[in-house]
Design goal:
disordered C terminus; 6-stranded parallel sheet; 51% helix; 3-stranded mixed sheet; 14% strand; 393 residues; alpha/beta
Amino acid sequence: MKAVHFGAGNIGRGFVGLLLHDAGYEIVFADVDGALIDALNAADSYRVHSVGELPTEHVMTGFRAVDSATEPGRLVGELATADIVTTAVGVRILPFIAPLIADGLRARPAEAEPLIVMACENSVSATDQLATAVEGAAGAQWPGLRERAVFANTAVDRIVPQQPADGGLDVVVEDFCEWVIEAAPFRGALPPIGGATFVADLAPYIERKLYTVNTGHAATAYCGYLQCADTIAEAISLPAVRDSVRRALEETSQALVVRHGLDPAEQAGYRARILARFGSDELRDAVTRVGRDPLRKLGRRDRFVAPAAELAEAGVVPVALLQAISAALRFDAAGDRQARELAEKLRTLPAALAVERITGVTGEHPLFEPLRDVFVDARRSRWSLHLYTASGM
C-alpha cells in the first residue's frame, strides 16, 4: 500500500505520515522545500518523540520524497499508483496542489481502485474545498475522472510545537492525537488505517476540535502575547490568561452543546483536558507561532467568529469570545505578514467596514454591533500605544 502526503513539515512527518506508516503504508512525501526533500531522500529513518503522560519514541522508515515544484511528472506518477492522498499544507495551498491530483487521476489506470483523498487541515470541510479545486483543474474531464477518487473530510488533532533549529528531521509531538474520518464516502469499504476513527457524522467532531482546541490555543496565544508571555505553557499558567481562555471555551461549549446535542458533562471534561494539554512544559510552543495569520483566524467560519455568531443568533452575547477577538486584533508580532495587514485595515478602514472585511459579519447580523464596538476599541488602543511608543515615553 502507498500513500502520498502533501506537506513534509512537522505535522506531515510527526502525525499524518506516522499514522499511515504505522498502518502499513509506504509514504511518499511531496513538498516544495528542496532542502527538506533532499534531507528526507538522504535519510533511512527519523524519530518522532511523543511527550506527555505516556512518552514514547517512534522510528519512521519506509519513506521517500518528491519535490512537487521541480518534479511534477514524477509526482503525478506516484499519485497515479497511490492508494491514499493526504495533505497538511494549509487550506490556502489546496488550490495549488489540486492540478497535480487531477493529473494523477488522469494517469490512473481505469481498473485501479479509487484514490482516497483526505485533506487533514484545521478547517471545516477542507476535503470538500480540495475536491472543488480538483474539479476545477480537471475541467470538462471531471465527469469521467470523478469515479476514480473518493473524497472524505477529516478532523485532526495533535499539538506539534515549533521544533528546535538543530532537530533535523526528528519531530517532537504531544502524546495525544486524534484522526476522525467520515465513513459515508467509502460505502462500507473503509481503508485500513488503524490510528483513525471512522464516524457517520463528522461535524460534531470537527467543530468540537476547531471550537475547543483551536479556539483555546489561539486565545491563549493572543491573550498571552498581551501579557508578554513567550510560550503557550507560560501564557496558560498566568491566572488572567487561563481565566480568559476558560471562559471563552465555556462559551464555545455552549454553542457546541446546542448545535450538536453534546453531553454538557462530557464536553466539560474535554475542555479541561484541552486546557491541561496547553500547560505541558514539554511542548514549548511560542505564542507568536500559534498566533500567526490572525486574519485567517478571524474569518467568518473560523475558531472565534463562527461560535460567537452562533451564540449571538441564539440571543446570547459572547463576552469572552469578544474579548479573545479583541486580543487578536492587538496581535502585532514582528515578521507576521497578516498581523501587518490586520493593523493596516484597522488603521485605514472605518470600523464597520473593517468588521465586514475581516470577519465577514454584515450589518444585519446580531453579532455586528458588538464586533464593531470591539474594533473601535482595538483601533483606539493600538493607536494610543503607537503614540505612546513614538513619543519615547
